[in-house]
Amino acid sequence: MDQLFDISLFNSTLRILTPILLAALGGAICARVGLFNVGLEGLVLVGAFSAILGNHLLGNVWLAVLFAVICVMLFSLLFAYVSINLRANVIVVGISLNFLAAGLTTFCLRAIFDVKGAYYDKNMQGLPRWDIPLIKDIPVLGGIVSGHSPLVYAAFAAAILMWVYLFKTVSGFRLRAAGENPVAAQSLGIPVRRIQYGAVLVSGALCGLAGAQLSLGQVTMFTEGMTAGRGFIALVATMLGQSNPLGVVASSLLFGLMDAFSIRLQGFALPAQFTQMLPYIMTLAAMFFFKDRSYLKDAQRANGSSR
Amino acid sequence: MTVLLEMQGITKKYGDFTANHDIHFDVRKGEIHALVGENGAGKTTMMRMLYGMEQPTAGRILVNGKEVHFHDPSQAIRHGIGMVHQHFMLFPSFTLAENIVIGGEPKKGAFFDRQSAADKVRELGERYGMPIDPWKKAGDCPLGIQQRTEILKVLYQGADVIILDEPTGVLTPGEVKELLAAIKGLAAQGKSFILITHKLHEVMEAADRITVLRDGVITGQMAANDTDEEQISRLMVGRELVQMSRAAREPGEKVLDIQAIKLAGGKGSKPLLDDVSLSVRRGEIVGIAGISGNGQSELLQVISGLRQPDRGTVELNGADVTGAPVRQIREQGLAHIPEDRYLWGASRDATVLDNGLMGHQQRFRKRGLIDRSSLRKVMNEWVQRFAIKTGSLDTQAQFLSGGNLQKLIAAREFAQQQPFLIAAEPTRGVDVGAMELIHGELLERCRGGDGILLVSSELTEILKLSDRILVMYEGRIAGELTAEQATEEQISLLMAGGKRQS
To answer: Could you name the domain of life of the organism this protein comes from (chain B) (predicted)?
Structure first.
């Protein structure tokens, strides 16, 4: 068991969960304004590609992260416009965005870098690792918490900030109101559309960070479809966490741990294909476990109140 | 008395359709001004203009003698006009305090000061005699409290004129009494009310002045002291209402016979239906009275096949249909006007035509396809016979007013021509004219030899139509009365779980 659970397992958990957490927070804020964002996968993929592209063009890893955030925000505007202004079904819009992102990044990879499958530049700088003074010297904890890319810490900070915003500030209160009963919110003069746009943009920014962590934090390269379903896992984390930022942290931790675990199990002569199923089996199992929790009841109630 | 609000020569047109024509209307300080009229008479349009949700085609609106133009509700709110909508505008997962202060939240910096919100709300409730628990979630509160919350919300927003749109439609009789008392109290403190309703006894009880609207035109405006219910209903409907009565009938053989039905509740709770037996004969109306939630819905679901009983049998038109599929039960002889028209009775997004087709698919089939032209012909007859106000047959059902949708559903089920009909809350939320029509039709069917099971929470309706009355309490039949012996007091007592005095 010692070989299975050690400091580096939890260390890699934190690293792996970061893109999921960031994207899931983006999903959470969209869900809070009544737009269920199935397009997280596509948004993260665009983020991952544009982070590499930004780094290639600008030669600075921080500017690259910023570039990724801006690109994904622009991309998410498409989601906002089609689902808010044109009132299209958000699920359909989200799915189309995923396919659009997959095609677009593959196409751009060939058009800009003239490579197939993956782009890698050994001179390219990835995100630095931060050793946190004091904490890094604490045994065990230091080994787990210290030495990550700044985006790992940013993800947790974002979760806390979002929680405070949603549940403690007036503006966050109105955002939740706009999501829970848009007609009532509108009748009170709350600018529902503007709030929805804001939420989608924030979601875009978070997915941009998630993508940057994928392509610049864990490795320094872009491969086609490198999100590999993380956006969907994030979607599940959003639901499992009931769109509450702290709940999302908990569910992301669970998925991150499972992911790290599956990598670790490969060292035990288990076939990689089998261990890679673990996070997804866990997802299904989680659904069974949570099936009669309040999320469902809230959904039913929401259904009833719209009568 | 000072006039707070005035509408002068207001006209509202939607294309060729005139919803309001040359309306003159005013509200004085501290008065309750009732606005009555049938569904679709234009009451709601009028109020939407006052509240800034619509703009008038012609005419002026004056607040405190100054002309105003509202482009959205927040402007109306700033001018002291508040509205309590028919379908509440609450946030079910928020606390009552949050629901009330939203839009004007007390702040500490950018943070929401929930403690001070709760204090303010508690104080507001006490000042106006409508106490509430500010920390309770709105979704967990009964409708009476939700309504109170809505009124406190507009008071918190600083409203002097409060529009109440059909405020009593969803309330229990006790809650209605409390509400009317509360608004009278508020009027005495100087608040003004516009009370939109079609329940005339409430108007007579609470209002100071009454304005009657029919087909978008004002047909009468008078002080409540100078009029009576007959005069108002004449002005609303435009003709005399027919007094209907139940003729004594000789019932025929049993068309529905259910025996010892039992339906278990959730774990650890009481059974939903406990040993319920009843029968309906041809040519008889059996009324089921009871406060809603005492097993009536479940009973109807068992009879119509939407739910399987744990024990007992249902016999319809001579055949055992216990546990049979819905379609088989319907073919065996059931027509069903369901209690919740939006949940069970109609599809909001489907057209009037498609809603009318439901259950008649087999009848309008031609070579495997739906014969829409003959469906249209039949439905136009329904629309005429039941005076259903709809733009066209291709309008979505959600744009019909509640009463008109109910008439559509009733017409559809009457057209089933089945010997047994369930009529559950057949006139909930419909106006006087529609009620007269539906009641007339029920009596007509009964005279023609059909058996009818009538479930209603309106005692007057039960007493008016039923030959026999069963009272349900906590999943059991608490008592049975014949039409001759039944009185409102007796039924009320049984409804509340009291023992029958013999």
So the answer is: Bacteria
Kindly report the CATH class assigned to B254-495: alpha beta
Judge: B343–A307 Cβ closer than 8 Å, yes or no: yes
CA distance B170 to chain A (A): 13
Residue spans of the domains in chain B: they are 3-237, 254-495
| CA distances to B262, B285, B383, B386, B431 from B407, in Å | 33, 20, 9, 6, 11
Contact between A188 and B85 using a beta-carbon 8 Å cutoff: no
Torsion of CA B406, B409, B410, B415, to 10 degrees: 160
Residue B222 above 60 pLDDT?
yes
Residues of B in contact with A173 (CB under 8 A): 98, 102, 105, 112
Backbone angles phi, psi at B213, to 5 degrees: -120, 135
Query: What pTM value is reported for the model?
Result: 0.74
> A307 and B73: CB-CB below 8 Å?
no
- Those residues with Cβ within 8 angstroms of residue A82's Cβ, 6 or more apart along the chain or in another chain: A88, A93
What's residue B240's pLDDT? Answer: 67
Helix (H) or strand (E) holding B264: none
Residue B381: the pLDDT is: 92
Render pLDDT for B419-466 as a digit per residue (tens, 0 to 9).
Answer: 999 999 898 777 778 888 899 999 988 888 899 999 987 788 888 899
> Pick from B98, B111, B343: which is nearest to A169 by CB?
B111
Q: Which residues on chain B are in Cβ contact (under 8 Å) with A184?
A: 89-91
Position A293 confidence tier, pLDDT thresholds 50, 70, 90: low
Nearest to A173 among B72, B90, B98 (CB): B98
Residue A301 pLDDT greater than 60, yes or no:
no
Which tokens belong to B100? 């009330």
CB A23 within 8 Å of CB A214: no
Assign a CATH topology to domain B3-237: Rossmann fold (3.40.50)
At A3 the pLDDT is 63
Spatial separation of the C-alpha atoms in residues B140 and B152, rounded to whole Å: 17
* Chain B residue with Cα closest to A304: B343
Q: Which domains does chain A have, with CATH numbers?
A: 7-301 (1.10.3470)
Give the model confidence (pLDDT) of B370-408 as tens digits. Answer: 898 999 999 999 999 888 888 888 888 888 877 888 999
**Nearest C-alpha in A relative to B104:** A170
Handedness of CA B338, B138, B82, B201 (dihedral sign): positive
What mean pLDDT, rounded, does chain A reach? 86
How many interchain CB pairs under 8 A, A with B?
Answer: 60
Same fold, B3-237 and B254-495: yes
Model confidence at B277: pLDDT above 80: yes
Q: At residue A72, what are phi and psi to the nearest 5 degrees? A: -70, -35
Inter-chain residue contact B102 with A183, CB threshold 8 Å: no
